[in-house]
Design a protein that fits this description.
The chain has about 300 residues and is α/β, with parallel strands linked by helices. It has a single domain (about 1-305), classed as 3-Layer(aba) Sandwich (Arginase, Chain A). It is about 45% helix and about 10% strand. The chain has eleven helices and eight strands. It has helices at about 25-35, 50-55, 60-65, 70-80, 85-105, 135-145, 160-165, 205-220, 245-260, 280-295, 300-305, and strands at about 1-5, 40-45, 110, 150-155, 175-180, 195, 225-230, 265-270. An eight-stranded parallel beta sheet has the order 2-1-3-8-7-4-5-6, with helices on both faces. Helix 5 (about 85-105) crosses helix 6 (about 135-145) and helix 8 (about 205-220) runs parallel beside helix 9 (about 245-260). It is globular.
């Protein structure tokens, strides 16, 4: 399996900051230490080209964020202080998702150990998101003629308002979100299909809703699926307000992965949110996603390993 990562994914934040920046390095280490990924499956995420960013974002927003002249109001809306290292992280994160998308088209599945920055709009970011990696990657593949139809399955607990805003009027896109109805963002931008769930939703209710919705999503007949597998629906998450267990999250992942695998649709994994206390719960849940993809796509990965 090809998975993208960069040390630039982790940047220094002020003491007490709420965003769990350390989870990226912790996840990389856990995947290797537990044998879920091999070292040769990890590839360096390179910064995305500015031309690709401009497919989803305005030139002014890109340049102002990259050179540090971005409006302080936008920085506050993003929620992470501006720094040169944060610029490098943001560019590499998008580059990792685009590289994973291209790898998935060749191999069937690939991932990025960051990304899922689905609150980024064309002219601004918010909710810890600067550039919308899924929107950039989807539009880049379409511009290259590599795909004709794209599905985004966003199961982060927070609705992907930026993704819906950027991709929503494009008939080549189908955006699907299951999210906390009363959770952030409080003004939702309609996806192609939105399923809002109540606070306290448990495994059985959540999985039943996902099972009901997936056939409609698959009828779109996509050439690729971007899976935003945020783990913030976990019951110990400090921002999620749902009651899913680790097993429930893994069954969620299995449903999406088996749908893609059965229909032979390339699958791209992005990380999305996770704010559990303790942070090890978040890392464990993300590891579970990769354990599941290894299980579901095992035959393809064995062929790929023999072919190396």
């Amino acid at each position: 399996m090809t998975v993208f990562y960069s040390d630039s994914y982790t940047v220094q934040l002020p003491p007490g900051h709420r965003f769990p920046m350390q989870k990226y390095r912790m996840l990389r280490d856990a995947l290797l230490e537990q044998g879920v990924l091999r070292q040769d499956e990890l590839h360096e995420a390179r910064p995305v080209a500015i031309g690709a960013l401009e497919l989803a974002h305005s030139r002014h927003y890109i340049s102002s964020f990259c050179d540090g002249s971005v409006d302080p109001k936008i920085v506050r809306r993003i929620g992470i202080p501006w720094s040169e290292s944060f610029v490098r992280r943001s560019l590499a994160s998008v580059g990792g998702t685009l590289a994973a998308a291209r790898a998935a088209l060749k191999q069937g599945v690939a991932g990025n150990l960051a990304g899922g920055t689905h609150h980024a709009f064309r002219d601004y970011g918010e909710g810890y998101c600067v550039f919308n990696d899924i929107a950039v990657a989807a539009l880049a593949l379409l511009a290259e003629g590599a795909v004709r139809r794209v599905v985004v399955v966003d199961l982060d607990v927070h609705q992907g308002n930026g993704t819906a805003a950027i991709l929503g009027n494009d008939p080549r896109m189908f955006t699907f979100s299951i999210h906390g109805q009363k959770n952030f963002p409080f003004t939702k931008i309609p996806s192609t299909l939105d399923v809002g769930v109540e606070d306290g939703t448990d495994d059985a209710t959540y999985l039943a809703l996902l099972s009901e919705a997936l056939p409609r999503v698959l009828r779109f007949s996509p050439d690729i699926i971007f899976y935003q597998g945020g783990v913030d629906p976990l019951h110990t998450d400090t921002l999620g307000r749902l009651r899913l267990t680790h097993n429930g999250l893994m069954q969620r992942d299995r449903m999406v992965m088996e749908a893609a695998h059965t229909h032979e649709i390339p699958l791209v994994l992005t990380l999305g949110g996770g704010y559990a206390n303790p942070i090890t719960d978040t890392v464990e849940a993300h590891v579970g996603t990769y354990r599941m993809v290894k299980e579901v796509f095992k035959p393809e990965m064995e062929v790929d390993s023999r072919g190396r």
